[in-house]
Design brief:
The complex is a heterodimer of chains A (about 170) and B (about 400).
Chain A (H helix, E strand, L loop, with lengths): L2 H14 L2 E5 L2 E5 L5 H12 L3 E9 L8 E9 L5 E9 L5 E3 L8 H12 L2 E3 L35 H7 L6
Parallel strand pairs in A: 2-5, 6-7
Antiparallel strand pairs in A: 1-2, 3-4, 4-5
Helix pairs in contact in A: 1-2
Chain B lengths: L17 H5 L3 E5 L11 E7 L2 E8 L7 H6 L3 H9 L6 H16 L5 H29 L3 H22 L8 E2 L2 E2 L7 H23 L3 H7 L7 H6 L5 H4 L7 H4 L20 H24 L18 H4 L3 H12 L7 E9 L2 E9 L5 E7 L1 H6 L2 H5 L4 H11 L3 H5 L1
Antiparallel strand pairs in B: 1-2, 2-3, 4-5, 6-7, 7-8
Helix pairs in contact in B: 3-4, 4-5, 5-6, 5-12, 5-17, 6-7, 7-12, 12-17
The chains are: A alpha/beta (about 170), B mainly alpha (about 400).
Chain lengths: ~170, ~400
């Protein structure tokens, strides 16, 4: 592992109780969800990880705890160019986590997409609307309990008929 | 029928200025069927006369649920969907997907396949830049340029058709190598293309670079700084047009890019003109890479010999029982890769194209995240358009080179 990356990872382990996981030479750090914003800010200011390359989520349903992981991919945009992933585990079917928008402004759209696709709510986000799906869509498509296909297509002529059969979320 | 709910201005109040509620500024929809939004992009413009006060991009009209679909397909079948994402960069998407699967499975790729991949990725880059140059020139009223660009692009599409049978949706690069070796006439076709292309690029530049009308519409418009680019995660020609030489092919070389000698073109200014200059120069650099790769093209196999992941050649099926078993297993069950997730990035014509593939150890990917550069780059639209004329919005959309298939996935 690169010396600079080693320093950053060790600091994260000491200060934020992160747990490192190395797979195919890529380092990802498991961090408690309430500390991930502070960890990202430290990485940006002290270790030069100044770009949020990507933010996404994974659903591990039917595994109950933790059901979701939010993944942050940070990049160091000056030599040595480095990549580091942070993972924040989240429990429950309606999880919430603080927004990364104040540290990296481009998290705005990335978090809107996660909200749209996984239903993870970002506290403190400036514009928490759906981004890809229509604004009146029900459900979050990339969740593993969301069905894929094999449903009758809803057109104008059979709209009411299918609407009656649709399952409604309990919340 | 259920009533269709309409979005009211009050729901968007936090995005527009207070003057909009007073009726001092006007809200105007541009798109999604506007010819110069390069696809189905809707922009909600807040206008003060002809000046843009705010610009709110609305995307998702081309959302096709590719990520969800890929989760339900085996690794080989899921690759077919990658062509359809960024339809101007199909081979680049194939390449990224294959690199990620190869990294997960620790597959080797023979040198000949790697060199051909580089040639094809660079041809795709030129193809994409030609479409960009043509269409964004057309937006700024350079009509004839569009036809010239399409004429040269046709030659690239012919090469794609020659190798894979399809002009756009190729799926030619496969995990572990290529679908098959290139035909004998491939080399001469590519050599013909790189022979005529430098003159053509000079021709395009002669039409635009010193054109008074073009300069008026591009210089000093849609300016962004390097710091803002990094803050907003912008990569590719937009970042390089601000003077920062950041290119994934140099920073984290893949597929043997470290063997080739090429420059990363940059330009100062960060405006539309700078982006135009960078992309035109990139086409020249791509030609350099293709020429070197062709000169050194090694002979040998084009697929890995690892039969657990790569299907055996057709000729072996009749004579080898093991090959038949491998063939059967690969095309019914598919292959399984070890549990874990990898984040792989390549330099697409639009910037850093990345994917995060997570495997649960089974034959289907558990999660495929496709990180399209268009999605990220579109986010800076409000930043770029503020204070410019409505007419310049068209030029700015063209200059950030979006492909909505890549953006909405």
């Amino acid at each position: 592992m690169d010396e600079k990356l080693e320093q950053a990872v060790t600091a994260m382990e000491e200060r934020f109780a992160a747990r490192r996981d190395i797979f195919r030479d890529q380092v990802s750090l498991m961090i408690a969800p309430d500390r991930v914003i502070e960890a990202a800010r430290t990485l940006r200011d002290e270790f030069g990880f100044n770009m949020l390359s990507d933010e996404t989520a994974v659903d591990y349903w039917p595994q109950e705890e933790p059901r979701f992981h939010v993944i942050y991919v940070l990049r160091r945009m000056q030599p040595p160019y480095l990549l580091l992933m942070l993972r924040a585990p989240l429990n429950g079917n309606a999880p919430r986590i603080a927004t990364m928008e104040k540290v990296f402004p481009n998290a705005n759209w990335l978090e809107r997409e996660i909200w749209d696709m996984f239903g993870i709510y970002f506290d403190g986000h400036s514009d928490m609307r759906r981004i890809l799906m229509p604004y009146d869509w029900e459900g979050h498509p990339l969740r593993k309990d969301y069905p894929l296909g094999y449903e009758e297509v809803q057109f104008t002529f059979n709209f009411d008929e299918i609407d009656k059969r649709k399952s409604r979320p309990k919340e | 029928m259920t009533e269709i709910r309409e979005v009211s201005v009050s729901e968007l109040q936090h995005l527009v200025s207070e003057r909009a509620a007073m009726g001092e500024t006007m809200l105007l929809n541009m798109g999604p069927q506007h010819p110069s939004t390069h696809g189905v992009l809707r922009l909600l413009l807040e206008l003060d006369g002809e000046i843009v006060v705010n610009c709110i991009p609305d995307i998702g009209f081309l959302h096709t649920g590719v990520e969800k679909n890929m989760e339900a397909k085996t690794y080989q079948k899921a690759e077919v969907m990658t062509d359809r994402l960024d339809y101007l960069n199909p081979l680049g998407n194939n390449l990224l997907y294959c690199l990620a699967v190869e990294k997960l499975a620790e597959l080797d790729v023979p040198p000949r396949a790697q060199a051909i991949r580089v040639i094809l990725a660079e041809l795709t880059r030129i193809n994409s830049h030609l479409v960009w140059l043509g269409t964004s020139g057309l937006d700024l009223a350079a009509m004839s340029l569009f036809l010239y660009c399409m004429r040269e692009r046709e030659k690239i599409l012919d090469i794609f058709e020659m190798i894979s049978g399809a002009r756009m949706m190729t799926t030619y690069i496969r995990p572990g190598g290529l679908w098959r070796d290139v035909p004998a006439e491939f080399e001469s076709a590519v050599r013909d293309f790189i022979k005529i292309m430098p003159d053509k690029i000079d021709e395009y530049e002669a039409l635009l670079s010193n054109n008074e009308l073009f300069i008026d519409r591009t210089k000093g418009i849609g300016v962004i700084s390097t710091e803002d680019c990094i803050r907003y995660g912008i990569t590719g020609p937009i970042l390089r047009a601000t003077g920062m030489a950041y290119d994934m092919r140099k920073v984290a070389p893949y597929s043997g890019y470290e063997q080739y000698d090429f420059d990363v073109p940059t330009y100062q200014g960060g405006d539309i003109y700078a982006r135009y200059k960078v992309r035109v120069e990139e086409m020249r650099q791509s030609l350099r890479i293709i020429e070197q790769a062709l000169d050194r093209l090694p002979y040998g196999p084009v697929r890995s010999n690892n039969r657990k992941f790569v299907p055996p050649p057709r000729s072996e099926l009749g004579v080898s029982m093991e090959s038949l078993i491998h063939h059967f297993k690969l095309w019914t069950e598919g292959f399984s890769v070890p549990k874990g997730g990898v984040y792989v990035a390549v330099e697409s014509p639009r910037g850093e194209l990345a994917t995060y593939i997570e495997s649960d150890g089974g034959p289907k990917p558990w999660r495929v995240r496709w990180h399209g550069p268009s999605f990220v780059n579109l986010q800076i639209m409000p930043l770029l358009t503020k204070g410019h004329f409505v007419a310049d919005v068209v030029g700015i959309i063209g200059s950030i080179d979006i492909v909505l298939g890549d953006c909405d996935r």
